[in-house]
Amino acid sequence: xxxxxxxxxxxxxYNPSEDEFKDTSVEIRYDPLTxxxxxxxxxxxxxxxxxxxxxxxxxxxxxxxxxxxxxxxRDCKVLEGExxxxxxxxxxSNISPYAEYSLVIPLTKTHYLRLDEFKKEHFLNAxxxxxxxxxxxxxIESDVFPIIIMNYLKPAGxxxxxxxxxxxxxxxxxxxxxxxxxxxxxxxxxxxxSYWKELVKEEKNGERFISExxxxxxxxPFAPLGLEHVRxxxxxxxxxxxxxxLEGMAQGIVxxxxxxxxxxxxxxxxxxxxxPLGENRNRTVVxxxxxSNFDKYYWCDVFSLEKLLGEKSSNKTPENIAEFMxxxx
Length: 329
What we know:
The structure is a single chain. The protein has 7 helices and 15 strands. It has helices spanning 65-71, 120-137, 175-191, 195-203, 243-263, 304-307, 318-325; strands at 6-15, 20-30, 37-40, 85-86, 89-90, 92-93, 101-106, 145-152, 164-170, 209-213, 216-219, 227-234, 268-273, 284-290, 312-314. The chain has a 9-stranded antiparallel beta sheet with strand order 6-7-9-8-13-14-12-11-10, with helices on both faces. Strands 1-2-3-15 form a 4-stranded mixed beta sheet, with no helix packed on it. The two termini are 29 Å apart. 37% of the residues are buried.
């Protein structure tokens, strides 16, 4: 029902310094749901550990406690200028919107956190705010597509150091979101069951399985989207998640970040896939990938292969990442 398809191509080159011919293999893996390809070439990356952020200049930050009340933008369409809060988290309107409803939620009062300093409550409070907002939004909208993302530090695309997530709700789904939605429908039509339900069953206790608790199964995808890709799958929709499931989701993210910290990482991206409003697909999917480290001379890990050709790549196998991450759950 679910096919884990891969191909192997072998390249040969002559190494004059060692006077020998060498073979190097690259795996081309196909995502079992979408068919999207991902290339895995196991190799070390010349990545230094992250910079000492405490020594960097902070500058003005709109999300720090002394500024947020005076400069934090308010949502008009749903909250009518209200700033919703939960713990240290505050829900604001994004002044650079990528969708009709575009929000930003600073997670902490602290301007910068190492990856091992993120706490479950930081994400839990933010997810509670998202749920509250989306429930209000359903009173005026349906057939729109919400998504949560997080970009931490500049290599991940963030323009603000302060830890924050973004929420976007659009009438036109984002490209990968749209591909997953259509692929889910095709899989159901062909198999009369949910892809994610079958995937959890297929992968449980396998070589890419990491852990299972509080409604979430944590694993590494067969065809990764980037470096050290970890995925959490829950068979309930995000807007319906009870507090213990939200806690499990938040704790799983924190566990992954602690693993990244042990690897020497300091930058990452997160996305949370949920159902279109007014529809329940009985799944919440969390994707987390590490990015190249933020340093004075950091380099970007997205090059032409992905930016222009749409091809994902990773320097480690999902199976090796899963083995490492099990020790952090």
